[in-house]
Design brief:
CATH architecture of the largest domain: Orthogonal Bundle
Strand content: under 5%
CATH topology of the largest domain: Helix Hairpins
Strand order of the largest sheet: 2-1-4-3
Radius of gyration: 39 Å
CATH class of the largest domain: Mainly Alpha
Structural class: mainly alpha
Order of helices and strands: HHHHEEHEEH
Helix content: over 70%
Number of domains: 2
Shape: rod-shaped
Largest sheet: 4 strands, mixed
Number of helices: 6
């Protein structure tokens, strides 16, 4: 006959919650070591992506200007060829009307050449301006890429040092979370996500919730020490445990975590 599973007491739940908090706090400390590096890397990646898009656009615009210059130069050659042709034809005209007509054609092609030369000068002025902008963008892109390489290398080094430990702690956190009922776990997660330091379960220190200076009434401290119910501090919004329980669980979890982490080195 299967044994009936013993229901968890309030003290069991408090211990499980504080154990989970101890594990999650160790994970938090590892991530603090990384600091703002992941965000800095992400920002640099986004900036470099934007710079590359701008470079591609400017290079495409520069190519278009070069193509226009080539087209104007071709038009000049064609106009020069036509002028030469019309000048030759002027030697064989039969009347003034044909002569004047050829003169007008020469005049028109001369104007076309002048217009193309003007457009070429405008295009080359644009190229000079764009060349300066391109050089600045390329220089900035090179600098940002170097910054990204340095930051990514620094981040990779830190991750390499802490990743194995973090993975062990994350597994322990998941394992511990499964021992806590869903409603209480949701409460823990909600309090933890709202706290800047990630603390959802804290012990009483100097008659106050750890991290605050507002004293807890004596009767409330007695209730917490009896461990018969889950008590939330009305000022900080955190779940409270007594100092003795906190010290017991910290010593126990340190032993468990040290044992698990030693396996990584063997």
């Amino acid at each position: 006959m299967a044994k009936t599973k013993k229901p968890l007491t309030a003290e069991d739940r408090l211990r499980a919650l504080y154990d989970l908090q101890l594990i999650d706090s160790r994970i938090d400390r590892i991530r603090v070591v990384r600091g703002e590096l992941p965000l800095e890397v992400e920002d640099l990646e986004n900036e470099i992506g934007g710079l590359k898009t701008r470079l591609e656009t400017m290079e495409e615009e520069n190519d278009n200007v070069s193509q226009r210059v080539a087209a104007y130069e071709m038009q000049i050659k064609e106009s020069q060829a036509l002028i030469e042709k019309y000048e030759d034809q002027k030697n064989n005209v039969r009347n003034n009307r044909e002569f004047e007509s050829l003169n007008k054609e020469v005049e028109y092609q001369t104007l076309e050449i002048e217009l193309c030369e003007k457009r070429i000068r405008e295009c080359k002025a644009q190229q000079v301006q764009k060349a300066e902008g391109l050089e600045n963008l390329r220089s900035k892109n090179t600098q940002r890429t170097a910054d990204l390489t340095a930051k990514q290398s620094e981040l990779d080094e830190i991750i390499a040092e802490t990743q194995a430990e973090e993975e062990v702690l994350l597994k322990q956190s998941d394992k511990m979370a499964k021992t806590i009922d869903e409603r209480l776990l949701r409460t823990y997660s909600r309090i933890r996500s709202a706290a800047k330091n990630g603390l959802a379960v804290v012990p009483i220190e100097r008659q106050a919730s750890a991290g605050t200076f507002i004293k807890i009434p004596p009767q409330r401290q007695i209730d917490i020490a009896q461990r018969k119910q889950i008590i939330v501090d009305e000022h900080s919004g955190r779940i409270l445990v007594d100092k003795e329980l906190a010290e017991e669980e910290k010593a126990r979890m340190d032993t468990i975590m040290d044992k698990e982490l030693k396996k990584l080195k063997n």
